[in-house]
Amino acid sequence: LTKPVDEAPREVDMHSDPSAVNEDKFAYFALWLPLVDVTRSNGCLYMIPGSQKLFTYPHVNGVDWPYAQLAKSLRKYAVDLPMKAGDLVIFSGKTLHGSYTNLSKEPRPVVGCGLVHPDTEMVYHYYDKENNLVKTYDVEPLFYFRGDYSEPVGRHPLRGSFTYTPPVITEKVVKQFYAENAGKSNSLLNLIRRLGVNI
């Protein structure tokens, strides 16, 4: 995931990763490992601690994150993660995260990948926009390396389907969630500080 030197702003907007496992039974994790020192000035990662417990609805591949209107208010809960080359952060794929624009004069290379247990039930959520329907197919891990996200009819078994209706989450809900979980968030921030990350 190389963030090049570019005159045009290239901040990666706040998002969660597309759901790729049967979330009733399994979880998936993201790994982010910079190959150079990263700070806010050259595009370090930021994340919203605890957001994976608030935004639990499946993030369907190819569909915009449905809560973009909350991004500004969520940023107040963001934690920057400046890291040394070779440091590693592992986080839930459902955790909201993004990265800053590279304002330096050098490219910012990062190794990014997903982590799942070998026994994990991998799935692909295909969005049928015409019918507002999400069709869930059983797939193998290599499915996501092929880059073909058309509907895999006849190529993979259909697990089921559901109407695409993300729950309504308002700024009030976000504020209430973080007010009720302030102690947990503070514990996480203190842990990050003890690990030597400046926030």
Strand content: 15-25%
Roughly how many Å apart are the termini? 23 Å
The chain-level structural class is alpha+beta
User: What portion of residues is helical?
Assistant: 10-25%
Element-level helix/strand string:
EEEHEEEEEEHEHH
The total beta strand count reads 10
With helices defined by DSSP (H or I, 4 residues minimum), what is the helix count? Answer: 4
Could you tell me the radius of gyration in angstroms?
18 Å
Low-pLDDT parts are none
Let me know the average pLDDT: 87
Tertiary shape: globular
Q: Reading side by side through the largest sheet, how are the strands ordered?
A: 1-6-3-4
Top keywords for this entry?
199 residues, alpha+beta, four-stranded antiparallel beta sheet, three-stranded antiparallel beta sheet, globular
